[in-house]
Protein 1
Amino acid sequence: MKRPEGDEKVSKWREALTQVGGLVGYESRVGKWEDEATLVKDAVREISDKLYNGCFRDYIEDKVGMRSHVEGLSSLLEMESEEEVRIIGISGMGGVGKTIIAECLYRQFSRQFTSHCFLDVKENCKQESLLYLQGHFLFKILGIEHIKLANVGAGSHEIKTRLQHQKVFVVLDDVDQEEQLHGLANDTSWFGPGSRIIITTRDKGLLQKCGVETVYTVKCLDKEHALQMFKQIVFKGIPPPDGLEQLLRRVSQLAYGLPSALTDYSRLFLAWGIRTKTKEELEEAVRKFEEVPQETIVKILRSSYTYLSRMVKIAFLHIACLFNGDHILRVGTLLDNGEASIQVLVEKSLVEISAQGCINMHVLVENMGKEIVREESKSTLQKQRILWEHLDARNVLRDKTGTNKIEGLAQDMCQMHDVLLIKGSSFNRMPNVKFLKFYTHLGDSGSNLRLLPDAASLPPMLKLLHWDAYPLRTLPSLFSPQHLVELTMRYSKLRFLCNKNRDLNLDELKRLDVSRSKGLRELPDLSSAVKLEELVVEGCEKLKFLKELPQTLKYLNAHGCKSLKNVSLPYNHYIEHLDLSDCSQLNQNEELITHFLTRGQNEELQASPRFACIPQNVIPTYFNNQSRGSTIQLSPNLVDFDACFMITCARPFHLKFSKSSYSLKWEADGVFRFNLKPDLYLSLETEEEETIHHLVIIQGLNNDHAGNFLYSLQHPPRFDSPTVEIIACGVRMNLQEIPNQI
């Protein structure tokens, strides 16, 4: 049929299309297109895409924090790469927003693919088998119904065969088992060039085991974004009433940055009619919600716990009730199979490990763990696995109602306003307690907890005994510490750990902290404590000797031991950090420095230089290259060296050094920079004006830069207080020449 070229209506259409084509960069007369039908198709597609992209931008703007997630993941997807198949993992704790992020990516990119699919894996697997899921996956991708699959292996083969030449965009949402990935997207070779596969899961370990190398971790919202999200859901962009800002902030913080929890709270307050309530009514509602967690939130979080092994569940509960915020190495030694269990919890997104190595469990996850402990005992206090509430622990101790079900007991003594007198027999009914924590906050040495010395005893299975302001002069005579891994008794009234005629079995002890025990006169022979790695005696002002220390010791903090005269380091020691600052009575400084520098085991410490601070006003001749001030030139062929600083501190200021008090690195300009950051504090006692000298030593420094550069050793800009100054420095070059030939 011949087109009616002269038809007025067709002419108007052609003119309109020409104008539209010009607007979007098309010109029908240019000759780029074979015919006008192709022009129309391309113009419509581009206009449609621009309209869609505009809608998509509006869509993600409505979701707080979504833009940064989409941008971050878009760069990982590398959509411009047409030949590569990329598989990306999105991990994070339950309710953090992984699915919504994946949905946004699917909305943005799936239109660019002829075949695409968004599959809720976990929910489908609850209802049907993996074999069914494979068939459903093929149906959603290809549109072919009733594909017969004999078994999962056949399903995997069918997916690979049918899709290995197709460019697909696939989201596999909420994957929680390895076999699900093996059955649906086992390898990049299953999909055609340019394909993109996104996998969301709470289990980062699952992604690692399945070879997914690129993983994007989703974090909780910060406080400001949480408040913004709450306002957006509840008030729909309308400014909230005046005077409610602080209350709204409290409401938004009920979710502790967890988006799903925040959404639930927002909807609850919206249904309650928050827009029409008075400030007083809102205050009362917030108080009630703060006391009772929402069931839907608990359900989301609890599903991650359900499938853990028994041992990992126990570790999870102990961390939730006792060890949230503690260092991973410390907790790993206290719990049975601790390091492996913590790793599983990290993989399942139930805990995170901070840059400092501390375990961080989200507050809502912690609360869920505590609720599980209560449920286990059917809210019977005496049978509860762990007691952490102040009143609960107090009542069980006071009334002697403990049972063999109790494994851990914690008491914040800052909350104890009345004196609590307990007998050793209070622990007799709790033989299985492994973790005992009676703690105060740093700097608070007071305690209203009293222990009667007569026939006093402690649980025989203790692995952790943390008792700040311990009231007796020795450990109970009937207590056998053979299982102790950590003994912490800060601000105690100890004079000796035990009677002199008694030997302590400390075979398992790894950490001993008796800091600020001002009456402590002597420690027992610790040479038999063959696992001891950390010893803290800071502020033990009457302690005179540290003798017979074990070879395994890595960390020794004796800052402020004003009476300390002698420290006996083992002959082949492994000391990595030694702080003897403000030990003014030390009479063997030169000998101690020599021992530290020349009698240590070096092989295992190459990756971690040794640090020491010792009272001294002269740089030893061991450091054969010395300079005044804080800068020194190094040989351009330097490979291995030891360094030192002479640092002064004017009273009434004092300085001490923790593991985080220094950092070091080689910089691009050939400067080795050692940043010294002592903990500086002001003495509360009246002291004469004087300047104290300390020698800071860093042993075992390596130069990874092979080139003829001049290096300068320098400290960072002056400390805030002018009372601290580096006045001299020195270097010993252990390997100065690099041989030209081997």
Protein 2
Amino acid sequence: METKRSRRIRHSRQDWQGFVSEFLTSGQDCKSFCRDKGLNSSRLIRWQGVFRNEISPAISQMQPVGFLDLGTLPAPEPQPRTGILELKLDLGGGVVLTLTRN
């Protein structure tokens, strides 16, 4: 019976820097990204730590997300109260909290 031994591909430091940079901008979680790329997730996390100080400035130079000010909503006009509002919450252990508005 013949067994196949899978050979682990050795990636260079430059390769890992590319993987980490791509991962940080991909929006994927680590497990999915590594599965798609055929990488070991613990190695990606390790290299992410190695490059943290080197990659952070590059990420911070990316365009900031714009902010759209939607303004404020006008105050609602007061509505006449009609009827009684009663709310009962069963808190368990025989405790019932009752809130009533007349």
Protein 3
Amino acid sequence: MTDTFLERVKNTIEKYQMLAVKDVVLVGVSGGPDSVALLNILFLLKEKYQLNLFVVHVNHMFRGMQAQREAEFVAELAESRGLGYRIFERDVPKLIREEGLSPQEAGHRVRKQIFQQLGQEIGAQKLALGHHAEDRAETVLLHIIQGTGLEGLAGMLPVSGWTIRPLAQTYKDEIINYCKENGLTFYLDPSNKKPVYLRNKIRLELLPYLKKELNPQIVESLVKLENIAAEDNRFLDELTEKLLPGFLISSQKGKLILSTVKLNGEHLALQRRILRKVYNVMRPEEQGLSFNHVERLLELCQAAKGAKQLNLPRAIVVKKNYDYLEFLDEEVHSPEKTEGFTILWEIPGRVELHKHITFNAFYTSTKPIVFKDFYQVTLDGDKIRSPLIIRQRKPGDRIKPLGMEGTKKLKDIFIDQKIAKEVRDEVPIVCCGEEIIWLPGITMHNDYKVSSNTKCYLNLELVKDEYV
């Protein structure tokens, strides 16, 4: 059985391209049979892939001396193989009390933070964990019971980001047999045998019942569902990421502003994904928003005029202003007024407002380009001299909007366009000398429009490269 088991693990590693030559691999080892078997298999493959293995263990301080003995066991396990290792102690019970988390949530958060920090410190390309097929099936059932969408069904994949799970296509009894046949000592956590927590109830009661009474292949069926959901979710997530910049009015460190007018015009499924994506952009280390949080955000999008606010997990505040949602990271946001900016723009040419917004200028001499919105405009190039100036608004600023004879205050234009006060200082204003000639996304100066006498066409565009 050992050879067959080992070959299946090797095949899984190759199928999902989990390892590359000379990878630095951080291996999470609890001391249980799954992680002990994982470490042993990776050690056997160490020479083939020229791996640099590094062991990490987290003592959650739940079980006193038992937990201490497990930590010492893992240290001996690493030392006996000549591997580097780190043992961490974290007061998870205190975190549970202070933040009202479940033991599973608190433990997951602590481990994830430690793995990320240590991985960066040692330059690890991979994080190897010992999850197996039953773990994956349990996770799918857990998410269904708690209430989930497509994303929750794709919970514990063989490869997810930098995390690899070489045992993902094996089973618990196989792993224990592998350990016994190879003389591998391991510890069993007695709390896993108590049907106190929901995951334990699923493992000890629900999954065995489903397997015995309804479907002997229930684990395989749930893993298949997970794989299908993962493929669908991956496609939809990539699509959402491509579409997101079109919904953003402004983006800067610690603040994203979303157009509710555009969002409300989309299918409900896309609305939910856009809102989740915005939160994930600001809090990529978190698991994401719950269904209830997303529904409250949707209600905020539909809310009538007036200041409204919603507090999301991990210090993200969402404010509704006019037709905009402002996502604010309270950990990095400063209440002080945004610093002013003035940038010289040599034309033709490109210039960055910041790394996410670029201005581009180019001439054409045949005919004007017809653009679909005011993020791209064609002006009479004969009337414009270089350099242009990109700056922040000033008190008393005015422009003669396209199609009008007289000038209008920028303040009034912003009000008409329902641009929130918090955003107005972030709107870039393009000037030729002292005269405002273009408000990207809003309008351009009427006197600079092309005419039958125009011989040189100046094309200006604002390009949103990505978001923070």
